[in-house]
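We treat protein structure as text, and this decision shapes the records that our systems exchange. Because each token names a local backbone shape, the row as a whole describes the fold. An entry from our holdings is shown next, in its original layout:
>
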Amino acid sequence: MLDLDRHFCFAVYSTAHMFNRFYRPLLDELRLTYPQYLVLVVLWREGGQSVSQLAARLKLETSTLTPMLKRLEKTGYVSRTRGTRDERVVTIDLTEAGREAAAQAPPINAAVAEAIGEPTEEREALQAALLRIRDRLEAAIG
């Protein structure tokens, strides 16, 4: 257990770090960080939603997500609207620029798949296993 490379969590952590480094130049052109890109991915697929819905979907705290959404609003990719019934509810929607940025996603995804270098079936099996582990950890936390 004293060998760092035998720690399962380190393998996941260091791989996630490498993903962030790999994505950085791909997302620089869009002026996005990887977490901001994930917000856009959710909005491209699922449409506008409240901050709390986005936070749940991304497995983030709203206090972590809110500053990120403010930065996305400043870059012109999203709009934030306070609810008329309840001002505490803030809805996030894509702007035209945010919708147009979706055209950049396929080349990014292709570059990631190529860099990973595993066949599609193996990538999908690994992803499914990681999601199961994530969900079990989430359940263990409570």
Remarks:
- The helical segments are 8-28, 34-46, 51-58, 62-74, 96-100, 105-116, 120-141.
- The CA atoms of residues 38 and 51 lie 14 Å apart.
- The chain has a mean pLDDT of 94.
- DSSP finds seven helices and three strands in the chain.
